[in-house]
Design brief:
The complex is a heterodimer of chains A (356) and B (267). Chain A is an alpha/beta fold and 356 residues long. Chain A has helices at 9-19, 34-46, 57-69, 80-96, 122-127, 144-161, 171-175, 187-190, 217-237, 257-272, 290-297, 313-321, 340-354; strands spanning 3-8, 24-27, 50-53, 74-78, 100-106, 137-139, 164-170, 177-182, 209-210, 241-244, 251-254, 277-282, 284-286, 302-307, 327-331. Chain A has 2 domains: 3-195 and 206-237, Rossmann fold; 241-354, Rossmann fold (3-Layer(aba) Sandwich). Chain A contains 13 helices and 15 strands. In chain A, the strands form 3 sheets. Chain A has a 7-stranded mixed β-sheet with strand order 3-2-4-5-7-6-13, sandwiched between helices. In chain A, helix 1 packs parallel to helix 2 (34-46) and helix 3 (57-69) runs parallel beside helix 4. In chain B, 37% of the residues lie in helices and 18% in strands. In chain B, a hairpin with a 2-residue loop joins strand 9 (250-254) and strand 10 (257-258). Classes of the chains: A alpha/beta (356), B alpha/beta (267).
C-alpha cells in the first residue's frame, strides 16, 4: 500500500531505505544529514535493520564494504567532509564491484566550510574522488519525493551493475519538508541472490573472494577494461534527465538538484517577460546527458548553467554543447542559494551578448 | 605408468596431509617466515572444527595480502588498517558465520589503531589474528609501531629512538583492558611447542566465537628473517632474546578477566 506523508528530505530517504529492504546502515553523524542516522536508529532498528553509529566515516565505508561483500543491501550517508573521508573505501568498493548506496547531503566547502547547502562536491562525486579509474552512478534529486524515489532506484541500479551508487543532494533538500508518497515496492522482486558474496564456502563451489588487488599489470588492465565496458553499458542504458519548456526555447537553463528548482521559478519569471527559456535538469550526473544537450544546441542561442559552486557541471555542459552556442555560468558559493531574480538578470546578460 | 615421484611417495609413511582448507599452491613467503605456519595452523583448526562452510576471513595489506590464495575459504581483502571494520560489516550481517581478520603490526597497530580499538571496545564477536614481527616486511623493512628501541630498519637507520619515534606500541595490552574483549593472548610459532600452544589458542578463540563471547585477539610474536637481515635460525634466536622481554608470551585475558602479571611469564 502506498502512503503519503509530510517529511524532511533526510527522513524520506531513511524511510525509503527501510522500505527498500536495506539490511545494514553504518554511519557517523554530521550536519546537515544527521536525521538519516537518527531516523534509522529509531525506525530502522525497530523494523529489523542493522543500524550502527561507528567511530568514523573511514570505518563506516569499510563496514559497508564488508557487509556488501557478504551480500547485504548496505548504505551509508554523510555530508561533504565525511564523504571525503570515505573516498579510499569508495575506490576499493568500485574496484571490487560491490553494490551499495551512499548519500551525500552536500554542504559548503572547502575544508570544514559551512553547514549550509552547496553543490561543491559535483567533481568529487562525478569525476572520481578516490584514486584510480572508476565511476559511481550519481543521482541528483530535486525534491523530497525524489529523495525517497532515488533510494529505491539507487539500490536497484547498484545491484544491477554491481556498482556503488551515490545520491548527491544538498543541505536544503535534506532539511526541507514536502509531501512524499511511498509507493509499493516488493522487496523480494528486487533483492536478487548474490552468488558471488562471501557467505561461507560450500563444497559445491570455489571460494568467493572480494578483492581489489590484482598485482600483475596484465590482470589489473583486464579488470580496468571490464570496468570500462560496464561504464559504457551504464552510459548507454541509464541516462536520465527532465526537460521543461524546451520545445519553443531560444535559451536553455541547465541545472541539477536544488538549482534546477530555482531555475524553474526563474523560467516562470522570464516567460512572463516573453523570454523563451527552457530547462534541462540532469537527473543522472553520471552517466551525463551529453547527447540531449548536443541535440538541443542546434535549436537554441545560448545556455546558462546555474550551480551552487564555482562552476563544475558547466564543464560537462560544454562537452555536450561542443562549442555550438555560448555557454555561460552563474553560481553562488559558501552555502548561499541563488535567487530566481539573480538568475533572470544573468540570463538577460547572456541574451544581450548573444544578440549583438 | 608410475613415475619416479609416485614411487617415492608410495614408499613413504604419510605423517601429515594438507587439509582441504589449504589450497594446493606454493606460498610466496620468504624462507623461515612465520606466516606459512600460522596459515597452516589456522586452516587446520577450521578443518578440524568442520567450519569451512561458515568461516569468512579478512586479509590485510601487508605480506599476507594474498592470504586468500592459500586459504580455501571465502575471504575479503581489506584496505590497509580496515580489516576489523570490514569484519564488523560481515559479522553484523551474518552473525552465524565465523569471522576472523589476519593483520600485521602496521595494519593493526598503526594505520588501523582506531578500527582495532573500537571493534574490541564494541566486543565484536570475531577473532583477530595479529602478527607482530616489529617490521614492515612487504614494503622492504621500514619501522613498525612495534619495532623495538634501538632496532635498525630502513627508516630508522640509526636505530629506533624514543624522541623521534616514540615507544614500541603494546596494543595487545591496551585491548586486553577493554571490556569488549574476552580472550587475549600472546603466542609465537618459532618452536614446535609454541606452535602447539598457538593451535590451542586458535581452537579456543573459534569456540568462544561460537558461544558469542566477544572479541578474541591472538598476537603472534613472529619473525622476519628478510627484514631483520638474518638467517631463519638467527631470527628465531633474536626473537627469543629481544622480542620476548618486551612482548612476553602468555595469556593477557582469559574468560573476560585480566590475567595477573606473574602468570604471564609462562612458556
Amino acid at each position: 500500500m502506498s502512503e503519503v506523508r509530510l517529511m524532511k528530505g533526510n527522513e524520506a530517504a531513511a524511510e525509503a531505505a527501510i522500505r527498500a529492504g536495506c539490511d545494514c546502515y553504518f554511519g557517523y553523524p554530521i550536519t546537515p544529514q544527521s536525521e538519516i542516522i537518527e531516523y534509522l536508529s529509531d525506525q530502522g532498528r525497530k523494523r529489523g535493520m542493522i543500524v550502527m553509529q561507528v567511530e568514523s566515516e573511514v570505518a563506516a565505508i569499510n563496514m559497508i564494504y564488508g557487509a556488501a561483500g557478504a551480500g547485504a543491501r548496505a548504505m551509508s550517508s554523510s555530508s561533504s567532509p565525511g564523504i571525503s573521508l570515505m573516498q579510499e573505501g569508495i575506490s576499493y568498493i568500485a574496484c571490487a564491484e560491490l553494490p551499495c548506496l551512499l548519500i551525500n547531503i552536500n554542504r559548503g566547502g572547502p575544508g570544514l566550510g559551512t553547514i549550509q547547502p552547496s553543490q561543491g562536491d559535483y567533481f568529487q562525486a562525478v569525476k572520481g574522488g578516490g584514486h584510480g579509474d572508476y565511476h559511481l552512478i550519481v543521482l541528483a534529486p530535486a525534491s523530497v519525493q525524489e529523495m525517497a524515489d532515488f533510494v529505491y532506484l539507487g539500490f536497484d541500479l547498484a545491484d544491477k551493475y554491481r556498482n556503488p551508487v551515490m545520491i548527491l543532494a544538498d543541505g536544503a533538500l535534506g532539511q526541507m519538508m514536502e509531501r512524499v508518497e511511498f509507493k509499493d515496492y516488493n522487496i523480494s522482486e528486487h533483492k536478487l541472490p548474490k552468488q558471488w558474496a562471501t557467505t561461507g564456502k560450500t563444497p559445491d563451489r570455489e571460494p568467493n573472494i572480494i578483492t581489489s588487488l590484482h598485482i600483475q599489470s596484465e590482470e589489473m588492465e583486464k579488470i580496468n577494461l571490464r570496468l570500462q565496458q560496464k561504464y559504457r553499458t551504464i552510459e548507454q542504458n541509464e541516462v536520465r534527465y527532465e526537460l521543461l519548456n524546451t520545445n519553443d526555447a531560444e535559451y536553455l537553463f541547465v541545472a541539477f538538484g536544488l538549482s534546477a528548482r530555482i531555475c524553474q521559478k526563474a523560467m516562470d519569471i522570464a516567460r512572463t517577460e516573453n523570454i523563451k527559456v527552457g530547462l534541462l535538469r540532469p537527473i543522472t550526473l553520471y552517466p551525463y546527458p551529453y547527447k540531449i544537450l548536443n541535440q538541443l544546441a542546434s535549436k537554441i542561442k545560448g545556455v546558462l548553467v546555474v550551480e551552487m559552486n564555482a562552476g563544475q557541471m558547466v564543464e560537462d555542459v560544454k562537452l555536450g554543447i561542443e562549442g555550438k552556442v555560448p555557454v555561460d555560468f552563474y553560481g553562488r558559493m559558501g552555502g548561499i542559494v541563488p535567487t530566481p531574480e539573480e538568475i533572470v538578470l544573468k540570463l538577460k546578460e547572456l541574451i544581450q551578448k548573444t544578440s549583438k | 605408468m608410475l613415475n619416479r615421484d609416485d614411487l617415492m611417495l608410495e614408499e613413504m609413511e604419510v605423517v601429515w596431509e594438507k587439509p582441504e582448507t589449504l589450497t594446493d599452491v606454493k606460498m610466496h613467503y620468504c624462507p623461515g617466515c612465520g606466516h606459512g605456519v600460522i596459515h597452516k595452523i589456522l586452516m587446520e583448526v577450521v578443518q578440524e572444527l568442520n567450519i569451512q562452510d561458515k568461516t569468512i576471513g579478512v586479509a590485510p595489506v601487508g605480506c599476507s595480502v594474498l592470504a586468500y590464495h592459500y586459504m580455501n575459504i571465502d575471504m575479503q581483502e581489506a584496505a590497509h588498517g580496515r580489516a576489523t571494520a570490514v569484519a564488523t560489516g560481515i559479522k553484523r550481517f551474518l552473525p552465524d558465520k565465523l569471522v576472523f581478520t589476519y593483520q600485521g603490526d602496521g595494519d593493526l597497530a598503526a594505520i588501523g589503531t582506531a578500527e582495532t580499538i573500537h571493534a574490541c571496545n564494541r566486543g565484536e564477536n570475531f577473532l583477530i589474528i595479529f602478527i607482530n614481527n616489529a617490521i614492515y616486511g612487504m614494503t622492504g623493512g621500514q619501522m613498525a609501531p612495534t619495532s623495538l628501541l634501538g632496532m635498525v630498519t630502513s627508516t630508522t637507520p640509526e636505530g629506533r629512538e624514543v624522541k623521534t619515534q616514540g615507544f614500541p606500541f603494546k596494543i595487545t595490552e591496551v585491548v586486553a583492558q577493554l571490556p569488549g574483549t574476552y580472550y587475549v593472548t600472546r603466542q609465537s610459532v618459532h618452536t614446535a611447542n609454541a606452535v602447539r600452544h598457538f593451535k590451542k589458542a586458535v581452537e579456543k578463540a573459534f569456540r568462544y566465537q561460537m558461544e558469542n563471547k566477544g572479541t578474541c585477539l591472538i598476537e603472534i610474536v613472529s619473525n622476519c628473517p628478510s627484514g631483520w637481515k638474518m638467517t631463519p635460525v638467527q631470527a628465531n634466536k633474536w626473537l627469543e632474546e629481544n622480542m620476548f622481554p618486551y612482548f612476553p608470551p602468555g595469556d593477557l585475558k582469559v574468560d573476560g578477566k585480566i590475567v595477573e602479571k606473574k602468570t604471564q611469564q609462562q612458556k
